[in-house]
Amino acid sequence: MIEMLRKINLTRAVRTMQELFPEEYNFYPRSWILPEEYQLFSTQISLAKDSDLSQKPTFIIKPDGGSQGDGIYLIRDPGDLRVIAGSHTKQSVVQEYIHKPLLIDKLKFDIRLYVLVKSLEPLEIYIAKEGLSRFCTEPYQEPSQKNLSHVFMHLTNYSLNVQSGNFVHSDSLSSGSKRTFSSVLYRLASKGVDIKKVWSDIISLVIKTIIALVPELKVYYQADIPPGKPGPTCFQILGFDILLMKNLKPVLLEVNANPSMRIEHEQEVSPGVFEYVPSPVDEEVKVGVIRDTLRLMDPAQKKSLTSYPEHQQEEMLGSPVRGTGEEGRVLPSMCLKQVFPKYTKQFSYLRTVERITALFLRFLGVKGNMRLGPTGFRTFIRNCKLSNSHFSMATVDILYIDITRRWASMLPDSREAGMGLQAFVEAFFYLAQRRFKSLPLREQVVSLLEVCEAQLENQGRGDPGGALPEDSTASTRRSVSCGRTQTGRTQHPHHMSTSAPGQALSAPQLCSPATPRRASSQDYRLHQRLRPTHKGNVEN
């Protein structure tokens, strides 16, 4: 989880979803990965400025492994990027700065929400009903060349603002530089804001972000926990940092894999003498998160509830329950609200990349491996019948080498050879675009998935193992041999395809009317050069 939530990996995961679902994933600011995309960043900004001289965009630079605001700074020109030793730019993400945040008391603020990922298989997500609102300590002004360095105005990080002389530690939950999120919502409601809509949008953002992360997490998961065998119960509390724009649209800033759970702060009681003082706001929010996470994960609690239907189990967990200790204390109602699988129907159509991940895991073969070798990739192509006279196995090898080498150059710290999931997804997108030329990308990908799953189903009839999941939530078997897939997958109306899932790749009626060209490395590289850069389109 820590690896996946580094800023570059999070950006790549969300980008993949933006390619398929640009409107659903427009809550993440347009981003570039440095140093590999510096030239692209510089060119796009120059073109934007040339086309509109009034444009004066601001960008925020975030180190890939940074935390607590360390190393973050603002720029207005690509030439202002700072460098480290030698001529190498530090690995980081550069994002468009949100110019028009919602202000309270003329101050910019963000929201820290705690999210429990209770289970990966099946996916279970809980959101804390209460969160923190963390305020800047200098009145906000839109960024200009004069105030770019004013971190107390532009950056909401607690660890930065607590160093300001204007930081206010308060015993109240609704005042000071750190407040409860509910107190902010109360103020908004008093001004006529539909806070139910605000909460709904935030919940949607959280679910969509985790859906974007799940495919890569499953690859890590299967490497450590054998499929079909009981393993340790894995869960994690995440810290989502969200900014509300002036129009009340939530924007994802980042996700923390190891959010602070401290409920006290340092206070100078005399010159040079500090002591730890309880923080009522932190205690109000964080104690409930920890308490209810333990209640949800407690094996004894789960065992005592198994005799009840699922809908009653949640109701019972949400009611005050008497502790089992000597004190027999009554515990408060649950502060964690289940949002998935509760809202599965609304978001299941977004889990397309998980279906691609199921194919990737199927052909990995070796236990614990997280990279697909050339033989596994050829087996995938052959078993799904994706090669034909216009797309030979030699061309398949060139495609594999080109993509794998390029991703290896982007991941210099990787010690494992082969094709990782992100590279496989890119190859799958390319195959889908080549195969179904006349369709939008989303329908191209879904159509190719249907072809692959149908081929594997036909080959695997009668084989009791290796089933592909119907909704990508069932455990994935890692076997080179073809298995049986569940039938009856229903297609989301957004993904309706004109193709029949059982048709082979070589069927001419499924190809573009244009004469098919032989795929070569030049063909693929041209595809990469012409491929548009997708962005979040965060609106002001």
Note the topology.
Elements (H helix, E strand, L loop, with lengths): L6 H14 L10 E4 L3 H14 L7 E5 L9 E3 L16 E5 L6 E2 L2 E13 L4 E5 L3 E4 L15 H4 L3 H4 L16 E3 H10 L4 H30 L11 E9 L5 E7 L7 E7 L2 E6 L1 H18 L1 H7 L4 H8 L3 E2 L7 E2 L4 E5 L3 H4 L4 H11 L11 H10 L9 H18 L10 H15 L5 H20 L60 H10 L10
Helix pairs in contact: 1-6, 6-11, 11-14, 11-15, 12-13, 13-14, 14-15
Provide tags for this entry.
single chain, 540 residues, alpha+beta, 8-stranded antiparallel β-sheet, 4-stranded antiparallel β-sheet, 16 helices, disordered C terminus
What does this 3D model show about the protein?
Helix content is 36%, strand content 15%. 33% of the residues are buried. Helix 6 runs parallel beside helix 11, helix 11 packs across helix 14 and helix 12 packs across helix 13. Strand 5 and strand 6 form a beta hairpin. It contains 16 helices and 16 strands. Strands 5, 6, 7, 8, 9, 10, 11 and 16 form an 8-stranded antiparallel β-sheet that branches. It has 540 residues and is an alpha+beta fold. It is globular and about 80 Å long.
- Beta strands, count: 16
The helix content, as a percent range, equals: 25-40%
Distance between the termini: 31 Å
Secondary structural class: alpha+beta
Summarize the structure.
This is Tubulin polyglutamylase TTLL11 isoform X2. The protein is of the alpha+beta class and 540 residues long.
